Amino acid sequence: MNTTTVRVLYIDDEENNLHAFKASFRRQYEIYTAISAAEGLKILENVPVNVIIADQKMPGMTGVEFFKSIINTYPDPIRILLTGYTDIEALADAINHGDIYRYITKPWNDLELHNSIKNAYDAYKAKIDLRNKIAELEKTNDELNRFIYSISHELRAPLVSVLGIVNLVKMEDLYDSSGEYWSLIETCSNKLDYYIQKTLQYYKNNKTATDLSSINFKKLITELIELYTYTDKSTNFIINIDQNEEFIGDAFRIEVILGNLVSNAIKYQNVNEENKRVSIDISVTSYGADIAINDNGVGILNEHLEKIFTQFFKGKNQHGSGLGLFIVKEALTKIHGKIEVSSNVIDGTTFKITIPNAKFDKETK
To answer: CB-based contacts of 76: which residues, under 8 Å, 6+ apart?
Structure first.
């Protein structure tokens, strides 16, 4: 370690201690001294200090109080407290809140203090290195996410063209003219489109900032049902929406949450069930929205209930991407919502979610 690069600030109201400290360590560290907390703060404003040492018993502001006052403004420097008396309560409080790295009793032992400064600087370097690595990882992750989004977005254009051609073939009554080939093309194209849509949802949920607006749940649910039942009208929907209060929320994420749950309720219906049913109950208050989506589909095995919100998890009865419920959970976390699930292979599945009403938060602030 090149000790000449270590910048140490020592604050003490006794000038003799400042001189003694500087005399002992000036060859090993770049020393800055201050006779008061106010003077120490001025030095911090102009010098990138690595380690701060402060005496506890100073007039006007104690060492612990000084460290507490700078924790948000100057979080990086490692803090060491010098104390000439035992103040267990103050020390314990400072240590527990992370305000100090170590404390040393006065008069100090040069070797002990030297080792403490070295260790503190190592902790400082580790903190900075970790932050830099996190920043690098976040940058790499952001670039990867943007690349995936761009590729997914570009893939949709030719895919939509393929699905358009399939629709033209249907309109010209040529769909069955080549055996099952057109059906296979349509199935594979729809599956690829589903994966792309989930990828785009995942990216947007991670990157999109919260955008609050008024939500009409009746209108939203109606649109979602029309969207996800356009190819299969066999499922009967029972809708019960009680909304007499204005609900303010993140329209994008709420649509993603309900869209995935409605889509799954349709997708995982039992093919042998004559009366395919999905019930949607929504109750809106000034505090939030309580939503229950129940189906009489194939259900979820008990051993899978704790795993269904895991990324890419696919149970025995699932044939999707393994992203839908993961995205639901992530989106709910973003808007401080909660979700519960109960299911069995006989009665089907019920999802219960709670979403806070942002209107209440605004009115109480």
So the answer is: 124, 127, 128
Please, what sign has the CA dihedral across residues 219, 220, 221, 226? positive
Is 84:105 a contact under the CB 8 Å cutoff? Answer: yes
Q: What are phi and psi of 73, to 5 degrees?
A: -75, -40
235, with CB counted inside 10 A (0-12, 13-18, 19+), is: buried
Helix and strand totals (H; E) in the chain: 10, 12
Domain ranges of the chain: 3-108, 137-206, 209-364
Fold (topology level) of 209-364: Heat Shock Protein 90 (3.30.565)
Is beta strand 78-83 parallel, antiparallel or unpaired with respect to 236-243?
Answer: unpaired
pLDDT digits (tens, 9 = 90+) for 108-131: 899 999 999 999 999 999 999 999
What's the gap between Cα 337 and its chain centre? 13
Say which amino acid occupies 146: R
Closest by CA to 302, choosing from 345, 351, 339, is: 345
Q: What is the pTM of this model?
A: 0.59
